Amino acid sequence: MTDQELTLRTELIEACRAMNGLGINKGTAGNISVRHGDGFLISPTGIPYDKLRPEHVVAMNWDASFTGDVLPSSEWRFHRDILQARPELNAVVHTHSTKATSVSVLGRDIPAIHYSIAAAGGDSIRCAPYELFGTQELAHAVVKALEGRRACLMAHHGVIAAHVSIARALALAVTVEELATQLLALLPMGEPPVLSEAQIAVVLEKFKTYGQQTPTVQEGLRHAS
């Protein structure tokens, strides 16, 4: 195992534990994958996060073969298919966060109630139709729901967030839960007003440089003389 692979395995384990610490997952319901080499690394099935060690993380190939004596997460199919379909994404986080899963039970998308929805890549977070967990049918539904997006819901199931790194994918999963919390708070008052496609397009453009530390790309800033 190379130092780079060990680092990725350790980061994946830390993120699994962080999901529960952040309150967006319980037990071992969630799972995480990250692109590596000619395939990907994925959390194992059924091992409590506090018991995970780097050797428990499963290395999988695109043909579904894997190495080691530990079985991969039962959701390996959608992890594989997302990473194969979206080369710009390197990590996938799946959670059963309470509020977002509640919205998924309603079978509805999360609309643009807050500009932070742009973090998911568009003006909505779609809800994929229900399919049995661990199946190829679910993988197909998820890949479709993620077209042009980095996050989606799965009806009666949970959340998927994908990004360029495990850290970014985990942060996006938190954002989805926040948006779902806001939506559920608003629904008793009726359908909430939403931002327009044009308004979200402006935010998407701003997000291209959001968080970067180059003053020249931030309007109104200048170095003190």
UniProtKB/TrEMBL annotation:
InterPro entries: Aldolase_class_II_sugar_metab (IPR050197), Aldolase_II/adducin_N (IPR001303), Aldolase_II/adducin_N_sf (IPR036409). GO terms for cellular component: cytosol. It comes from the Bacteria. Signal peptide: none annotated. Residues 10-184 form the Class II aldolase/adducin N-terminal domain. GO terms for molecular function: aldehyde-lyase activity; metal ion binding. The keyword Metal-binding applies. The keyword Zinc does not apply. SUPFAM superfamilies: AraD/HMP-PK domain-like. Keywords: Lyase, Metal-binding. GO terms for biological process: pentose catabolic process. PANTHER family: 3-OXO-TETRONATE 4-PHOSPHATE DECARBOXYLASE-RELATED, FUCULOSE PHOSPHATE ALDOLASE. This is Fuculose phosphate aldolase. It comes from Pseudosulfitobacter pseudonitzschiae.
